[in-house]
Amino acid sequence: MNLIELSKIYVKTDKEQLHSYFSRVYEDILAPHKIYFKKICEIGVGDYDCLRIFKNYFKNAELLGLDITNDNRQLEDRIFLEHFDQSNKEIVEEKSKKMTEYDLIIDDGSHVMFDQQITFCNFFNNSLKSKGIFIIEDLHTSLYVLNDLNKHVYYGDKNEITTLDLLKNFNDTGKINSDFLSKEECSILENNIEKIMIFDELNESVVAVIYKK
Length: 213
Known about the structure:
By secondary structure, the protein is α/β, with parallel strands linked by helices. The protein is 38% helix and 23% strand.
């Protein structure tokens, strides 16, 4: 079954029902890798249905779900859960250095600008293998910040560089600029990114796919 079909069985994920990520983006991008991906990580896993979708889709892959609400345990065959706080830079750095050679990493975590950018930097540079794919979901939170929307949720400060602007700036200039990363960290990203695809035709469902050299 494809991702769209699987999402009708495992319904406790908003990836298709709300955002149409599977039909708009993931199926075309991930289908060529179905039998080849061996290690996949998702940050922010909710009720675990997306991990189950990926387990059924990537038949040869081991799935790791990182979430601040998780205990460290095996959920079922090929699915493992670990507690993870992506708002703590030291924890992010330490965890990313322990995880290596991942084929696919998806950030569906807090969506806070600081969290997204330190997670992207460390996991892309340290954990993702060459030719791997990193996906950042729900980048419309960057638009919330810029437009002062959803003030009841703290995603960031409009005076700081949003994650969406960081990615768009790379596409425009080849440079990474961030209020939360060092010049060295930005330089490493610049040298390792092959390309960035941003899917923003639906303003309330923005997602980016970043390929590693």
